[in-house]
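Give me the fold.
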Amino acid sequence: MLNCLCAAIPARERVITCEEVFELRVPLPDVVAMQTRQPNLEGAGEIPLRRLVKEALRMRPSRIVVGEVRQEECLDLLIALNSGLPGMCTLHANSAREAITKMCTLPLLAGENIGHAFVVPTVAASVDLVVHVGSDPDGRRRVREIVAVPGRAEDGVIELADVFSTRDGRLVRSSGYPPHPERFAASGFDLPALLDDARWGS
């Protein structure tokens, strides 16, 4: 799924990818792929994912892509996204809503000085869309839901809106809209028209 989304990135953009294992194949002319490194037998030379995310910000990226977020590197990714840098990542969760909850929890691993009062509004302001992919009993993967994050949080809970959800085994249009429609318009997409067409199946 992340490879498919990366294929839609405009060719003029400079993309930096950060992964533990090289899995992304971004079909763009200006791509820098970075990989973590385990420590040697003496315990030296380790390059963790968190360092790669920080280094990526120094490489003039138009967009940053993190293969999988598991630990405190989530904080560095959120800080990058909150500074206006577009990006994508994957993480494991049972639903789109649980993915947002996990993004609010993983940054707390970065240190005791990081709290929910900072993380929750940062996630709400930095994340626009969550695409949840699930596995069917026959092993096929399919999109189960797409959830928008309008940017509001109250009492530590982030507001979410269903854009697409699964009903009777089919992905169907819901009532929610992604935030920042002006960004879609700047890329040549009429977001309301696209979503209305999806609602009526045209």
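The chain has a mean pLDDT of 91.
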